[in-house]
């Protein structure tokens, strides 16, 4: 058995840290991201949390294979730099994470986009085990994606291949996205965008959604279930957006399986059958049907994949 | 120098046949496709045209390396079968082309999707020479695509990867496509669909487009240039559809270059700068800008690529 790795999942709200060995998270902790203040000032706290986690487990850095970091942005996994990330972590492209890892912890670093590490987790340890052609879609604050084609994780020349499914244009006359383009999947149906979309609807005041403190997909699916007309419309439009996203990814990468993960998947019992039915009907796959499934490790896959990269790349 | 190959470009109107050696078409001919009658009944005429071409060049089949066939559909290049194709050639999936090639000509066969062979032609002999990450878009009767990623032609597990860019959903509430899905690139802006779209517009009768015998992109670009309001609207919407298509393909495959080819490219002086400007502004490429260029061999690339496959795969 390999030594365990330290895996870091850099989220906009929480930075999750796990002690990972194979398919198991032996122990974990988390600290607030305070991402509005940038990432540099959080790194000493990340190092301290890692040291505390090791001490709690009676381990030292000599027991650890290295650090694997999952990042919600475009990552140069060779130079170990973040190339592009949400402005909340605007200072991240300037940070030399490898030096930080060496200096603060005495450990080597692997760094990768978080949708890719999540897919690695599912591909090595979850439902996509032994599936050599698989796409992951994460539906949450944003919409992420990643792809394994013919047994190889797709990265591309400039590290962007596979991970921009949330910025697939599915409504070219639609709403402007925070990326500047029009009609991306994310701007049409993700947690960051749906509240504004609902409130801008002319019928908003007449909907029970107007009584909600927080408009998100939990409230939309719940009130749709109670037959609120606007919640039903927003639910159904969002499902069609995600179906278009899934079809575009199937057409792009020719997978056998699409795994769906992310915060919105609390409503997976509704989402998965809908996506299966739409992709069965409309993805052009003369060989058969692509399996649409919810992910095995919606919370842990990114950590498992980051740990895998430490010991296998 | 390798022996020359016979290349066949199976179009819906014409079946083009070329004697191909490297980047040169030594001689060529074409026969009507009569595609409404299926393909089986055309094969004796294809064989006769090949024999006539060889005789005209004072060659026999022993001088030829083999036959390369470019097909506008989904092709199993290993089993050498057509998996899916427009219903005009509805009998094609049942045809054993390899046996036909052996029996009628005494030659081996390579068979591939035509957008892939066109990209091979551009990649080996044209503007994409030595570019290891490149996407081709063909704008014509339909919209085709193909991709080379990290020096490898993308085929995918079931032979559909890269070639379905024309069925990327860019308008999920839009028009129903002939594939059954809604809002594909093709149904929003291709030669087969644009006439019906123009005629269905409420302002059609008031437009000078109503005086045209044939409504296609030639007439649309021409009358837009003469300030016809509907022609301008249709031109601009079509450009935005193709820009969304290009952005989706850039996001999917992370290329350095996008080549654009196909019949519509008679208006390339207008189309290429527009696509360059839109992808510069809206494709998420933190490393730099993707070059958008018109193809080197808009008419011959598919033949050159099919010939290349014969002698190199």
UniProtKB/TrEMBL annotation, chains A, B:
Transmembrane segments: none annotated. It holds the Pfam family ROK. Belongs to the ROK (NagC/XylR) family. This is ROK family protein. It comes from Limnovirga soli.
